[in-house]
Design goal:
InterPro entries: GH, GH_1_N_CS, Glyco_hydro_1, Glyco_hydro_1_AS
Order of helices and strands: EHHHEHHEHHEHHEEHHHEEHEHEEEH
Family: Belongs to the glycosyl hydrolase 1 family.
GO biological process, one term: carbohydrate catabolic process
Protein name: 6-phospho-beta-glucosidase
CATH superfamily: Glycosidases
Keywords: Glycosidase, Hydrolase
Strand content: 5-15%
Number of domains: 1
Number of helices: 15
Low-confidence stretches: none
CATH topology: TIM Barrel
Length: 474
């Protein structure tokens, strides 16, 4: 059987990690521009340290990134050469509304994305557009406190109405918020939240999450009204958490960790706050302020499909002694003794992808879409800029096999697969360029030096064959 005939193969990027042009075309400043590389990155991501304007002590990789703002035609042409059926990209909110609360949108920003989507269409590539991939105009952060403020729902609604109408017929697949659960782990990066002295951080995070969930439901409603062909998905940073041992306490600890993630998707996909979450919030003394109509809005506007990023599985133990953490993205986890790890400490678990897909499909019975999966690695190019990245091919091959098993053997309904960072870009976690994911090498280093020249890696030709054979030739 294999994958459906119209399976959407492609790659994924985020505006703030590839576009650059931070002060061009009328664009305003965003939270994601202000996260530097280096030791202060994590305290800033976490909302523990304020960075509301650029200083001279830090380097800010998102300001220029890989300058896709000026290179998008060349880049999309390369994606087309690989045979992409879809390209997942995101809109920089501050390109459309530079301050977030502007009366009218910025035409130059609207035109930029219109041209980009038309460029995709020229090659038969379906744009899959993330409305908010961690972006929040800085003016909204400074003036309103970002998503902790209910007014954000109105600003987001305005953005949605503008883009759904403007790109009607050009874009049919939308994601409301990238990795919505990341608000719990990196609140400033994910939602522009910076904590004030003495604030109840959990209260702030969950209230902000409620506002995002309401905004997501509203976006889904508007998208369907503007164009019945629109399909709207939610987006989860996924990866099942396993019990560290078969001790019942460990099993239950894993259930709790998984629920922390599913909570968001339970609301977006099932339309209500799950009972375990309500109990948990009550225990923590967190009171979610809901407005009249919120529950009805959530109930009546669930998503059409569920999209995920998957890089690794995780482990949980109830034993405080065992909880010696390992690295692995922004999520800390125990080391799984049965798995190898990447250079950045992420545990490589292809079967975990199949397990995660089954968990989500069993839970929601809605079509799934893998919109991020890949291996961050140090690539060493030869004198011509060519990279022989067999390690990346091996990683992707194993994950595609696992995804195929989920479809063929387990009957999971899967819409498509877009690898993360199909062209090298700035890492969201570390801000590095040397942590590369792409099929296309970009000559740029962690300090922002390099020619920006694009060169096809070995994996470029491999992925082209995978797509051409609809996943039969791996």
């Amino acid at each position: 059987m294999g994958f459906r005939k119209d399976f959407l193969w492609g790659g994924a990027t985020a505006a703030n990690q590839c576009e650059g042009g931070y002060n061009e075309g009328g664009r305003g400043l965003a939270n994601v521009d202000l996260v530097p590389i280096g030791k202060d990155r994590f305290p800033i991501l976490a909302g523990e340290m304020k960075m509301f304007e650029f200083d001279d002590e830090h380097f800010y990789p998102a300001k220029e990134a890989i300058d896709m703002y000026h290179h998008y035609k060349e880049d999309i042409k390369l994606f087309a050469e690989m045979g992409f059926k879809t390209y997942r990209c995101s809109i920089a909110w501050s390109r459309i509304f530079p301050n977030g609360d502007d009366e009218s949108p910025n035409e130059e920003g609207l035109k930029f994305y219109e041209d980009m989507f038309k460029e995709c269409r020229k090659y038969g590539i379906e744009p899959l557009v993330t409305i908010t991939h961690f972006d929040c105009p800085m003016n909204l952060v400074i003036k309103y406190g970002s998503w902790r403020n209910r007014k954000m729902v109105d600003f987001y609604e305005k953005l949605c109405r503008v883009i759904f109408n403007r790109y009607k017929g050009l874009v049919n697949y939308w994601l409301t918020f990238n990795e919505i659960n990341m608000i719990l782990h990196a609140p400033f990066m994910a939602a522009g939240i910076c904590f004030e002295e003495g604030e109840n951080k959990e209260q702030v995070k969950y209230q902000a999450a409620h506002h995002e969930l309401v905004a997501s439901a509203l976006a889904t409603k508007i998208a369907h009204e503007v164009d019945p062909n629109n399909k709207v998905g939610c987006m989860l940073a996924a990866g099942d958490t396993y019990p560290y041992t078969c001790k019942p306490e460990d099993v239950f600890e894993a259930i709790k960790r998984n629920r922390e993630n599913y909570f968001f998707i339970d609301v977006q996909s099932r339309g209500a706050y799950p009972s375990y979450a309500l109990k948990d919030l009550e225990r923590k003394g967190i009171e979610i302020k809901m407005e009249e109509g919120d529950e009805e809005l959530l109930r009546n506007n669930t998503v059409d499909f569920i999209s995920i990023s998957y890089y690794s599985s995780r482990c949980a133990s109830a034993d405080p002694e065992v909880n010696k953490k390992t690295a692995g993205n922004i999520f800390a986890s125990l080391k799984n003794p049965h798995l190898k790890a990447s250079e950045w400490g992420w545990q490589i678990d292809p079967l975990g992808l199949r397990i995660t897909l089954n968990t989500l499909y069993d839970r929601y019975q809605k079509p799934l879409f893998i919109v991020e999966n890949g291996l961050g690695a140090v690539d060493i190019p030869d004198e011509n800029g060519y990279v022989e990245d067999d390690y990346r091919i091996a990683y992707l091959r194993d994950h595609i096999k696992a995804m195929k098993d989920a479809v063929e053997i387990d009957g999971v309904d899967l819409l498509g697969y877009t690898t993360w960072g199909c062209i090298d870009l700035v890492s969201a976690g570390t801000g590095e360029m040397k942590k590369r994911y792409g099929f296309i090498y970009v000559d740029r280093d962690n300090e922002g030096k390099g020619t920006l020249k694009r060169t096809k890696k070995k994996s470029f030709y491999w992925y082209k064959k995978v797509i051409a054979s609809n996943g039969e030739e791996l």
